[in-house]
Amino acid sequence: MSDILSQLKTSIADHFLDNKKSRLSCLSIYKCHRPQQLHHIPFSQPTLLVVVTGQKQVVLGDTRMSVSKGELVLIPPDSSVWLGQYPDTEGRQYLGLAFRFNLEALKHFRLIYGASLDQWDISAQWQRKAPDSILASLEQWVSWHKYYSVNEQLIQHRQVELLLLLAQAGLIGNILLGEHPSWKQRVSQLLAIDPARPWQIGEVCSRLAVSESSLRRKLQQEESSFRELLEEVRLASGLSMILETQHSIGQVAIAVGYQSQSRFGERFKRRFGMTPTDLRRTLDD
Fold it and tell me: Of the four listed, 96, 126, 214, 277, which is most buried by Cβ atoms within 10 Å?
């Protein structure tokens, strides 16, 4: 294991030892001691996945990848992915990171560095050994959260910095897939701000400056709908909370907009192939 990867593993361990740990905004840290197999995980935003220990299996359409420690995967936006996460035999745990890039950061990156894109390899790249520069940037972000609070400006700055590092390493292709964001991306990112909110399509249209009939038509063209996206965002938010927090399943259900824990569990299992309780058990040592 490289020195940088070892430092990242140590910082992650410190994060889990901190009883006051909080979710790290655009960066998620995952740990499990038993295998996880999850179906149809939605990635509305382009996402960088890194395996720190253990192994990850990724299936996206016809693309299948087996990802080992120290390797990364780049998931393009508007993807539905099957994920398997498996502890290693030595430490009997899986550790991994997910870093999501929002639309504002992508727009800002294009504004600053768009003229330089022809200098870099922007072909689609799926899987690669993670460059030390990427691992160091992620380790700094995890460590920063331990001592300091963050705001939206810092989050945007960190995202643009990581996008630049990916571009310089020839790994930006999947992240910048498509010059214009889909309407699914725009709607999903807005809904994810507060998944428990009783969102109505009229409010979303007002915030996105589009008519209701136009938005319905655009989402239909993208083989989606407002109601489908709302449930998808709520379940994805619930998935993250189960993996990243100590909240009870009932608390998670309410936090993502379900008044009934049983209904949340039913919809969760139908979507991901595991109940919230069974998923939470994979985290136990």
Answer: 96
